[in-house]
Design goal:
The protein is mainly alpha-helical and 148 residues long. The chain has two domains: 83 residues, Multidrug-efflux Transporter Regulator, Chain: A, Domain 2, CATH 1.10.1660; 64 residues. α2 crosses α4. The longest helix has 35 residues. The N terminus is likely disordered.
Amino acid sequence: MVEEDEMAGFTIGKVAKASGVGVETIRFYQRSGLIDEPTPIKTSFREYPDATVDRIRFIKRAQNLGFTLAEVQELLGLSEQPGASRREVKAMAEAKLGLIQQKIADLKQMEATLSQLVHDCSGRGRVPGCPIIEAIVGETNTCNHNGT
């Protein structure tokens, strides 16, 4: 958490530095409704409240866990809703976990297939007959031209 005295007069550049993101990221978050755009106080500079840095850090951590910005918006909404249930947050996390586990399974299958193809290719000679190319051509030929 950022100390209040450190936040006094925090401009967009200082918020960016404190939260570890770029100024354009902050502007994007503002346009997306993830963070509020402060109104100018006394000068033309906009001063951000200390909660802005914490909110940006939350957004980045959630993104690092695989949540989309729309999902982050929903998580933020739940975290700010006094009557919200942990069940809703858990359901979102479980759904994200399922997607990540499926991606991992898909990547493992891709790894196994590509590993076998690399093993089958001697790396010598001309490209025609290369098992890697043949496997890729075979993959594209298994689909008909109707997109199915």
